[in-house]
Structures are given as C-alpha cells and as structure tokens.
Amino acid sequence: MATVTGLGFDLVDVERAPRGLLRVTIDRQPGRSYAIASEFVLVEDCEQVTRQLQYVLEVEGLEYSRLEVSSPGLDRPLKTEADYERFAGQAVNLVLKAPFQGRKNWQGVLQRAEAPAAEGAAQPAPAGWNLCFKDGKAEQVLGFMFDEVREARLVPVVDFKGRPRRSDAAEAGPAVEAPAGAAATGTDGG
C-alpha cells in the first residue's frame, strides 16, 4: 500500500479477517523524523493512517466493514530481509519451515552471517543469517537462509520497574543517592 509508505511508515502486515475486518499493521521508519518524536508507533500515527486509508479505500471501492490500524507490538513480526537487517543484534523467536536437529522453534540473537570469500567468484555467495543461543552453558550458532524461515518475531522486552538490569547497572558505574527523605526520580515514594 503506497498510501502507508507515502505517509512515512513501514507497512508491516495487511490482513483480511472475518466479518469484513481489514487489519493494517504499521511501524515507524528508522532514522526518519516525525512531528512527535518517539521510537514507537503512537495513537496519532494510527489515526493519521486510518483517516488516509479510509479515503483511499472509498475512492478505490474496496469493501470492508471495519478498519483497524495498529502498531506491530512488542513481539513484532520480521517479514522481510530488511526487517532482519534492521533488528540484527536483537533477540528473536524463529520458526523454521523444516526441523533442524529435531526442532523447528529456536530463540536467540539474530546476526548477519559472514560470507566466506570465494576465490575467482564474480559475485559473493549469499551469506544468510545466524541465530546465537545458549545450549546449557555453551553458546551455539544456528546458520540459516531467509527462505528457510516460516515465522520470525522479536522477543518482547518488558521492564515494568524501570530498573536497569544487573549488567546495565554494573556498567553504569556508582549510583547517585538522593538526599535522605526524598523520593527517587520515577518512584511513587511508597
């Protein structure tokens, strides 16, 4: 849908659901500036895309009962190789089309595989992707090609407390203490 990309958003998915529901999933484009600065899709973004799509769908004569425009969520699907490039270095859940070592479901950190340099080759061979994961205490790497994947999604990272993880706190250095009796920033004092 050129309308969505024309408004400055990535079209993640379009789904026709039962009873005339047309579901459109959008995401913000990395590196692009928006009227309201945020790394995530905002309600205002969904409203803007909804208004424009309603107009376009009416002009095109496409029948639907309800239109739903939303963000891809914390467990965003990775549908294209461009998505893989964008989210390389992040944790993903991966479902392969065919089992490898007796399983199709894998979880780990997505990385671009290094292409081996072939002597005398006019074009480099496709490099593919790696999924780095822990198997017990040992770190393992699963190599795969994009077309071997049935589904890939980001692993949701939720931090309700706003506290740094132990590794982040160790890297941040010494903590700064608030004066006695004062509530720390971001707490309710309770």
What is this structure, in a nutshell?
The protein is an alpha+beta fold and 190 residues long.
Structural Rg? 22 Å
The coarse overall form would be globular
- CATH architecture of the domain at 2-70, by name, is 2-Layer Sandwich
Q: Which percent band covers the strand fraction?
A: 25-35%
The order of strands across the largest sheet is 7-6-5-4-8
Mean of all residue-level pLDDT scores: 84
Unreliable stretches (pLDDT < 50, length at least 5) are: 167-190
List the main descriptive attributes of the protein structure presented here.
globular; 19% helix; disordered C terminus; 33% strand; 190 residues; SH3 type barrels; GMP Synthetase, Chain A, domain 3
Task: Describe the structure in your own words.
- The structure is a single chain.
- Helix content is 19%, strand content 33%.
- The chain is globular and about 55 Å long.
- It contains 4 helices and 8 strands.
- The protein has helices at residues 2-6, 43-60, 81-86, 166-172, and strands at 9-17, 21-28, 66-70, 91-100, 103-112, 129-135, 138-144, 149-154.
Walk me through the topology.
Layout: H1 2-6, E1 9-17, E2 21-28, H2 43-60, E3 66-70, H3 81-86, E4 91-100, E5 103-112, E6 129-135, E7 138-144, E8 149-154, H4 166-172
Parallel strand pairs: 2-3
Antiparallel strand pairs: 1-2, 4-5, 4-8, 5-6, 6-7
